[in-house]
Amino acid sequence: MLDNIHQDANVRMDSALSHTQNELNKIRTGRANPEIFDSIVVDYYGTPTPLNQVSTVSVPEPKLITMQPYEKSLIPLIEKAILDANLGFTPGNNGNAVLIPIPALSEERRKELIKFIHKIIEDGKIAVRNIRRDAINKIHDYGKEENISEDEIKGRETELQNITDGHIKELEAQQEAKEKDLMKV
Prior knowledge:
Blueprint: H1 2-25, E1 41-44, E2 47-50, H2 51-54, E3 55-61, E4 64-69, H3 75-84, E5 92-93, E6 98-101, H4 107-146, H5 150-183
Antiparallel strand pairs: 1-2, 3-4, 4-6, 5-6
Helix pairs in contact: 1-4, 1-5, 4-5
């Protein structure tokens, strides 16, 4: 049972890391990253549909993203959805595809984004620590029910802390990588 508590905590912490990475992927850097548009939806015949399901998204150049809609009638809808998302992009089109130039980030905007990255990472750390706290409570409750020795419980807490520390280090590595990516010109 105690091993199950550790496994559950590890799986939940991995999920928190994955969620944090997905949130970081949505942050715009100075280079073209199609994942920025993953959360944008288009009204496709009355149904809100993600952009990547109504068009082919590609990056032909480091500073340009193109969206080739499956139907040309979607071009104005895609442009409107991108503008409404308020991501700081001004899409255009060539009659066949939506073209989104990626402007360079100002120093002020980079600093704002770094603060935002720190907040996302801190949220991830809080999630990991909350999972640790829940697992420790489960270990203590199970220990009382089954009359497990204090030494065994302390050993399990130490193992859990090691798992937590590993996940916190991974979050810090994600933060460092995103900041490095953001500071590239």
